[in-house]
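Hi C.,

You asked whether I'd gotten around to modeling the 441-residue construct. I have! Everything is below, sequence then structure, no commentary in between.
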Amino acid sequence: MILLMKLKLIVNKNNYKIMKLDLSNSISFLGENSFSRSLEYALTKLETLNSGKGEGAEFLGWINLVQAFDEEDIEDIINVAENLQNLEAVVVIGIGGSYLGAKAVIEALKPHFNKTKTEILFAGHTLNGNYHKDLLDYLQNKEYGLVVISKSGTTTEPAIAFRLLYDDIKKRWNKNIIKERLVVITDAEKGALRQLADKEQFTDFIIADNIGGRFSVLSAVGLLPIAIAGFDIKEFLRGASIAQDICLEKSPENPAVKYAAMRNLLYAAGYKIEILVNYNQRLVFLAEWWKQLFGESEGKENKGIFPASASFTTDLHSLGQYIQQGERHLFETTIFVEDDSDSPIIPNDEENLDKLNYLAGKSLEYVNQKAAQATIMAHVEGKVPNISISIDYLDEYNLGFLIYFFEVACGISAYMLGVNPFDQPGVEDYKQNMFKLLGKK
């Protein structure tokens, strides 16, 4: 059993860049004085988070996690990942936070049309039968492994997916081969997967009791799949560690405090929907992770901002009209990636039938960034407040920073709303109905 508890991750804190947060296109709607008051209140809720005295404090294990690893802990994850990298594919089985964080990071880092060295596939996040049939068919001629993630081992979607895939590998390989290619991430002491891991002596990592699924991407839950995909989890943790130093500091310049303060000020002013916008489609699944983080943490007691997402400029051709002139109940948070070094240059065309020669010699990303600036200008003029987040590069360091930043901001923001950020009582309602309809006793 591999325990991930201590942490003294060595970080060069004199050599880093941090994300930029621009609130000017939201403050202009509400005024400096209103924002200052909201900021003061947000700082008190940061103190609530830091003190561990707020509601749900028993689930604050994530807050100091990245500075509790030591090199041995990280090397354990890397060694297991390297063993699985010998396979053609690895299926990660999980739902919600047990898969979204890892998928968000992997999709952000890998090229659009390339697979990672070891193909990472996902199962257990849907009950759709066609998906799992197609997955089993796809795997029939492949040497593959499994990483199954569940505290209880009985959550319906991943438990069914694991049953299907475990049945498949037991038909194809003997116990010794299966032991080399099946990893369990589960509770330390109890649950169906714990019993199985102990019985079969599978390699396993622990999901700590004090870390909820949507806050688990910086634990083995996210780190192992990210490492299997071939990405640098030390840099990922370094970014999160820098973010921890900055985002837990009781300072009015703390970006997590400022973001939470602005979100809640906008909510109080009637802006009930937040759209997380990207201009880089590698960030689509970061938005999916973000939607669970904020939606599940804040949507309680008939309160909470509804989290939505959009990919521009693509979605400007479907949602743009509504955003520009529809009901004024939404605001946008836009993530920019400033590096454009991989962008192709637009060529000159002698015939110029498309009348685009005025762009010849410019990079496509330059055009993309001008489109982003123009869109924000138009939306602000159309009375849509905007928050801008900018990072230099889309890499492990910046993703680690962004994820930790959002986690802290979410905790502060939920406390400002007056709800427990770390429970999800409403999630059980549909399950009870489903179990009755399925005949579960």
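If it helps when you're writing up: The chain has two domains: 20-56+248-417, 65-235.

Thanks,
B.
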